[in-house]
Amino acid sequence: MIAKPQKLQPHEAPHETPSPPGVKTLPPRANHFRGSLGRFATGVAIVTFDGPTKRHGLTVNSFTSVSMKPPLVLVSIARSTRTHDELANRPFAVNILGAEQKDLAMHFAGRPSREPLWVEGETAPRLSGVLAYFECTPWAAYDGGDHTLYLGQVENFDYRSGDALAFANSRFTTIPELLRGDEELL
Ligand SMILES: Cc1cc2nc3c(=O)[nH]c(=O)nc-3n(C[C@H](O)[C@H](O)[C@H](O)COP(=O)(O)O)c2cc1C
Question: What top-level class would CATH report for the domain 30-176?
Fold first, then answer.
């Protein structure tokens, strides 16, 4: 007889049995979801823009390229952030961070330190010394559950050489730039 598929409660892991005393218990199922997502290594970026009330910066790892023609990029912003409502219909910049810019990432993730140097971009304010940047005009915003997916049309961009800051398994790490000449091996 084929067993009927068992409907899992949100907090239950499949085949989860109680751990014997002294053995570390598995984290709840919600953390497994976060943990699974965390296996996808990403770069780290900061979204910057002038909102109706003030200038904003917000660290994200949800940056994605979307389209070449027209040139579109996407960031996913949590509804719970102060940034969320202010970003609607605003030009913004996405600042891609270099390996040495972890402090900058934390500055715009709720752990403020030294005020960074700003650049008045053509379309939106951006940060000085980043690995790459994209200045965008608003293209569309889509419902994404407890986040909103903000798409921007890229109006201006550039990059420098250097290692990239990366984020994986809830930790910062580094992605080294390929050494000059490696491409000749391909
Ligand atoms: C590495 C990293 C990646 C993050 N990625 C996102 C993201 O993609 N979207 C988001 O809404 N928040 C993200 N956050 C959390 C925000 O940076 C954080 O909640 C911020 O303090 C919100 O600021 P605000 O409430 O002043 O707008 C990330 C934080 C870190 C450290």
Answer: mainly beta
